C-alpha cells in the first residue's frame, strides 16, 4: 500500500466516509501501527489538524484578500505594505516585520479563473498562486503572508508575476495573459 | 500500512517491549508509549467528536486511564498494549454516550442560563505552518475548500459534499488528492527557508 493510499484511508476514517464496521477493523490496525511507531501518515494528519486550527485564527485556507481587509491589516504593528506596479523595486522591510501585505496593480474585473505564475526573467517557473480572488471594487489582487514567505517572492531574486485568466464574456474559455508585473529586490 | 483489508504487518514486538518496560516502572518507556499512541487516540476522538478541545480532552482522559493501568499493572499482556488502549477508547466513548444523554437532559432544562465561550489559542508560527501556507497556494480554490471544511471546520464527509455541491465520491477524491499533494509539497524544503 502506498503512502497516498494510507492517507486516503485515514481521511475516510476521520471524515466518517468509512463505515463503522470497517472502522472497527481499521482502528485495530491504527493503534497497532501507532504503538509500533510506524504510522507516518497518521502523524502527518495529526499535525495537519493543529496547523488547520492555526489557520482558523486567520480566516481559513482561502487565498487572496479584499482591499478592506488589507486596509485593516495595515493598521496593525509589524505589518509592511508593498504596492506592486509593473516595475517595482522592493526595499528590505524592517527586521521586526511579521506580515507583508501587498496589492498587485491590475484590473481583473470581468475575468475569472485567475492564476498567478511567478517566473524568473529567464522564464524559469518558481511558484503558482491558483484561483486567486480579486477585489470587486478595484479589480486588484490583494494578499498577505508571513514575512519569511514574502521574502521568497519579493526579496530573493528578480521575478515576474504573470497573471493569467479567462475573460468572462469571451465565451471561448481561452486563457489570456492579463498582465506582467516585474519585482526586483532593491 | 494502515489498511483495512491487509493482513497485520505491524511489528508489535517493539511496542510490547516498551509496554513491558513501562510495567516494570520505566517512566521513559511509559512516556514513549503515550507519545506514540496519542495520534491514534486523537484520530479515534476526531472521528466522533466535533471540536479540537473535545478531542484533546478525550486523549488526556484515555492517557490518564492508561498510565493508571500501567502503574497498577492492570495490563496483563504487554503484547496487547495497542488493543488495550483501543479498549479504553471504546469504553470511554460508551461512558460518554451515557453522560451525554444525562447532559442533554440538563441542557434542555438549564441551557439558556449557560453561556459557552470557546477560546482558540493559535499555535506558534512554525516552519511547517509556513510551508503549508506556501503549498496551499498551489491548490485550486475548490480543493482548498474541501480540505478546509474537513480539517478546519471539522465537517463530516457528507456535510463537506453538501457544502461544495458535489457528490460524496467527488468530494472524497478531491480531498484525497489535495491531502496527498500537500503532504508531498510540505515534506520538501522551500527556497525561502535559506533566508530565515
Helix-strand blueprint:
The complex is a heterodimer of chains A (186) and B (196).
Chain A: H1 3-14, H2 20-35, H3 40-56, H4 67-74, E1 79-84, E2 87-90, E3 99-104, E4 111-119, E5 125-129, E6 141-146, H5 147-154, E7 159-167, E8 175-185
Parallel strand pairs in A: 1-3, 2-8
Antiparallel strand pairs in A: 3-6, 4-5, 4-7, 7-8
Chain B: H1 13-23, H2 27-48, H3 52-71, H4 81-110, H5 127-136, H6 141-151, H7 157-164, H8 168-186
Briefly summarize what is shown.
The complex is a heterodimer of chains A (186) and B (196). By secondary structure, chain A is α/β, with parallel strands linked by helices.
Would you write up a description of this structure?
The complex is a heterodimer of chains A (186) and B (196). Chain A is an alpha/beta fold and 186 residues long. Chain A is 33% helix and 30% strand. Chain A contains five helices and eight strands, in the order H-H-H-H-E-E-E-E-E-E-H-E-E. In chain A, the strands form two sheets. A five-stranded mixed sheet of chain A has the order 2-8-7-4-5, with no helix packed on it. In chain A, a hairpin with a 7-residue loop joins strand 7 and strand 8. Chain B is an all-alpha fold and 196 residues long. In chain B, helix 3 packs across helix 4. Chain B is globular and about 50 Å long. The interface between A and B is large, with 71 and 72 residues.
